[in-house]
Request: fold
Amino acid sequence: MTYCLKVADMPASERPRERLVAYGAKHLATAELLAILLATGQGPGKLSAVGLGQYILQFVGKHQHDPLSALREVSIPELTAISGVGEAKAATILAAIELGKRVFQSRPPEHTIVDDPAIAAAALSQDLMWQPQERFAILMLDVKHRLLGTQVITIGTATETLAHPRDIFRAVLKHGATRVIVDATCKQRVQWYGAVLPYKTIA
Reply:
């Protein structure tokens, strides 16, 4: 469905901003979230802000199954090539995307106690999220499970990466860590290699 009706002419219960306030951002479609950023519409057929949001998603995702993946890496020239999107709208969209990336990639502070998988994931997010190639990274902790640091051990291809336990333990020794969190697929090899060293491996 394409929206040509102006947002201001929509019933209040159907306007993106009002819906966000009433129900929360999670309940809005991606086009509605874009509409809030765009503020106004136009483009082909004088689309509403919601319609323009839909058109942007269709345009950037025309070569991918997931338009959000394309939107994540979109550039100013790519956005301004879309009818109805000028530099101001493009800059607003990119600023929102970058803010979202920084929020999701924010790391826990040093010496945070890592006692939950979500904390470990947050600590590694900057190294692993949205990378074009597979990466193998580790999380290093002290004896009290406090965060000492993270390190990318290897960068592989688009679909796989390999890490040698030797490289993992070299990083662990350098940071003075006594605990290391690794990928479950590599845990067995790391435990075998670390049997001669006083380290605990956590998957």
In short: The radius of gyration is 23 Å.
